[in-house]
Amino acid sequence: MPNESGTQPQIDIRLLTGLEPRAWLAVGAGYSREDIKNLLLSRGQGFVGEAISSLQEIALKLIGSQLGNVRVLGPLSRQELLRTLLSVSAIQTRTPELKRLRRQSGFLKKLDRALQQGRMAFANEGESQVLNERLLERAVAGPVRSELEFFTVAYEAWMKG
């Protein structure tokens, strides 16, 4: 993001280098961690892998000591999990609309994004119920929505297990 003078702020890459970096760099969507790592290596700078990570990985580092051993699946792993769950016959029989939509290009990516955004829309069961009531008031219902609710329960049960 440009600063007041309209230029891009510069990052002192020395903060990222060494065995104990003094800073972490969170690489957002649209940027490649490997490109940044190659840039550091091309300048002769050594670093540890955790110095360049995603925002999600940094958040886990910050709260990890409080939660114990927590792992987070990346987008490709989550999409593979979705593919696996959608192939389970007990789930297939209850989600015919999702099966039909699955033929669309980028379906698993869209489904993953929808599930992740939906899971972050509320912090507890009370907020979930309020959100659900608002959706019903606005007549946001249908077979896809009910199938997604069912599928979300299956997804979360697998994640907890």
Structure description:
With 161 residues, the protein is mostly helical. It contains 8 helices and 2 strands. It has helices spanning 33-42, 55-67, 75-86, 89-92, 96-101, 107-119, 125-137, 143-160; strands spanning 25-26, 52-53. The longest helix is centred in the last third of the chain and has 18 residues, at 143-160. 7% of the residues are buried. The mean pLDDT is 80.
Q: How many helices in DSSP terms?
A: 8
Q: Given the C-alpha coordinates, what overall shape results?
A: elongated
Residue share in helix: 55-70%
Distance between the termini: 41 Å
Over all CA atoms, what is the radius of gyration? 21 Å
Low-confidence stretches: none
Order of helices and strands: EHEHHHHHHH
Largest sheet: 2 strands, parallel
Strand order of the largest sheet: 1-2
Assembly state:
single chain
Strand composition percent: under 5%
What is the typical, i.e. mean, pLDDT? 80
Number of strands: 2
Strand-pairing-aware structural class: mainly alpha
Descriptive tags:
mainly alpha; 8 helices; 2% strand; elongated
Explain the layout of strands and helices:
Blueprint (H helix, E strand, L loop, with lengths): L24 E2 L6 H10 L9 E2 L1 H13 L7 H12 L2 H4 L3 H6 L5 H13 L5 H13 L5 H18 L1
Parallel strand pairs: 1-2
Helix pairs in contact: 3-6
